[in-house]
Design goal:
The protein is of the alpha+beta class. The chain is built from 3 helices and 4 strands. It has a single domain, classed as 3-Layer(aba) Sandwich (Rossmann fold), CATH 3.40.50.150.
């Protein structure tokens, strides 16, 4: 991973902007898989800004893949704090901003 090549292991990243034209699914799957395998190599990321591409057809499979992606974010303690449709493009693009929160934020009160 590029972060390893740049020597950014064990460093805090305040904002990670990801805009890779449809590659966001595989990128985040690999990033979070790395965090589950070896937490020491994954930087602590505070915020992630990205655009998600559902495709012109907005098929059920692409929506399921997006849902799975947001479950991955949740498993890493990220919550959505901003979202908006990219109306300048007819390809069903949506921009999201995620914030990593303390795990206790996600615990439901009794």
């Amino acid at each position: 991973m590029v972060m390893n090549e740049l020597g950014h292991q064990n460093r805090q990243i305040h904002i990670l902007k990801v805009d890779i034209e449809g590659g966001e699914f595989s990128f985040f799957e690999e990033l979070f898989q790395s965090s589950n395998n070896d937490q020491r190599d994954l930087p602590y990321i505070r915020q992630i800004l990205f655009e998600i591409h559902l495709g012109a057809d907005r098929s059920e499979s692409s929506c399921r893949r997006a849902h799975k992606l947001f479950e991955l974010f949740r498993s890493q303690n990220f919550a959505i704090f901003h979202k908006e449709a990219n109306v300048a493009n007819a390809q069903n693009l949506f921009e999201y901003a995620m914030l990593r929160l303390n795990p206790s934020f996600f615990i439901s009160p009794l």
